[in-house]
Design brief:
This protein is of the alpha/beta class. It has helices spanning about 5-20, 45-55, 65-70, 75-80, 80-85, 95, 100-105, 115-125, 145-160, 175-185, 205-220, 235-245, 255, 285-310, 320-325, 325-340; strands at about 25, 30, 35-40, 60-65, 90, 135, 165-170, 190-195, 230, 250, 260, 265. α9 crosses α10 and α10 runs parallel beside α11. It is globular and about 60 Å long.
């Protein structure tokens, strides 16, 4: 008798079919999904030393325009050949100053804000080159429409050719359908749509449901494939769930804070017991070894995700996909709630 596919096999096949368009698209010369290794002075006061010690282990980097303006001025950084030839993600600098504006400004004796839209534009003009991805200057206090309008206006002021525009939005409770409606009306030609992990819901299956609805609506309304970038999401398990839900680009600082092993994140000092002691004698050598290991783990995950979609063999992600079946109930309940709010 012919063997009939199980419900799980049908679900896995459906998910892989829906992700086929993603793995055919490239960002920064890399096919999706793309993992972006973030650097930031927020939480890492030793950023210049850390960057110099580890910059060669990160395939694609995210650097803040704020940090480039203030903290990464070392000639060894700015004049390195790869610094001006390798495509990078350039963040707006809002993350580094968010919630710290009053403190930073009080420390500035000149009385001028230490970060602003004007400095964002100026820094982008100085540091961005063709091929870079520039993240919009985000402001969660604005409506969705005004966030988009502000982001597009500042892109025009940057006047840099050959950049990719990554429009970071804060839904502030808006449904995925409302977000896509605003994008279709104001920025139908945008290159990437960005959301922060903390903005799209908790726990993980609420976030996955939001991404799933956003992906389906983007595909239908814009009639082209627009990558979704989840900022601050670099946990291996969450990456897999959100990729199968419809997200494409992931970044974060978790690769500096944790030890990744077999798809899980552990306290970073656990790494000390997994390597020869000689690799831990010099502090920056130890950091580089840990981060190099984490990059290998994440890039292996990236390869496995692409393989699963290409071959429709999702056996490595069976638990993840079984959990994602919650889409069917969560999505229905969320749409019902959204409809009642209108």
């Amino acid at each position: 008798m012919p063997r009939h596919p199980s419900n799980f096999e049908r679900f896995g096949d459906q998910i892989c079919a829906s992700r086929q368009r993603a793995i055919e698209k490239q960002i920064c010369g890399q096919p999706l999904p793309v993992f972006v290794y973030s650097y930031s002075s927020r939480g890492f006061s030793d950023l210049p030393e850390r960057y110099l010690a580890t910059r060669d282990v990160a395939p694609i980097q995210l650097l803040s325009l704020y940090d480039l303006h203030y903290n990464l001025q070392d000639p060894e950084i700015l004049h390195a050949p790869e610094f001006t030839s390798t495509a990078r993600f350039l963040d707006s600098g809002v993350y580094e100053t968010d919630g710290l504006a009053d403190l930073l400004n009080s420390q500035n004796q000149a009385g001028q804000p230490l970060w602003s839209q004007e400095l964002y534009v100026e820094s982008a003009r100085i540091f961005a080159h063709s091929g870079d991805v520039i993240v919009s200057y985000d402001d969660r206090s604005l409506s969705i429409d005004n966030q988009i309008a502000q982001g597009l206006s500042l892109y025009e002021h940057i006047e840099q050719q050959g950049i990719t525009r990554d429009l970071l939005l804060h839904p502030n409770g808006a449904s995925p359908e409302r977000v896509v409606d605003a994008i279709a009306g104001l920025a139908p030609d945008i290159d990437i749509i960005g959301l922060t992990e903390k903005d799209i819901g908790f726990p993980w299956f609420i976030a996955a449901s939001y991404v799933h609805r956003l992906r389906k609506t983007l595909n239908v309304v814009l009639e082209r494939y627009v990558p979704i970038h989840i900022f601050g999401c670099f946990d291996p398990q969450t990456i897999a769930c959100l990729f199968f839900a419809g997200a494409d680009i992931f970044d974060g600082l978790a690769w500096m804070r944790y030890y990744f092993h077999n798809g899980h994140a552990f306290y970073s000092r656990e790494f000390e017991y997994k390597v020869p002691p000689v690799q831990l004698l010099k502090p920056w050598d130890a950091a580089k070894n840990l981060l190099g290991h984490n990059v290998e783990e994440l890039e292996r995950l990236r390869t496995d995700l692409r393989y699963a979609v290409l071959t429709r063999d999702v056996s490595q992600f069976e638990e993840c996909l079984e959990n994602l079946k919650i889409f069917e109930s969560t999505t229905v309940s969320q749409r019902s709630a959204d409809h009642k709010q209108r």
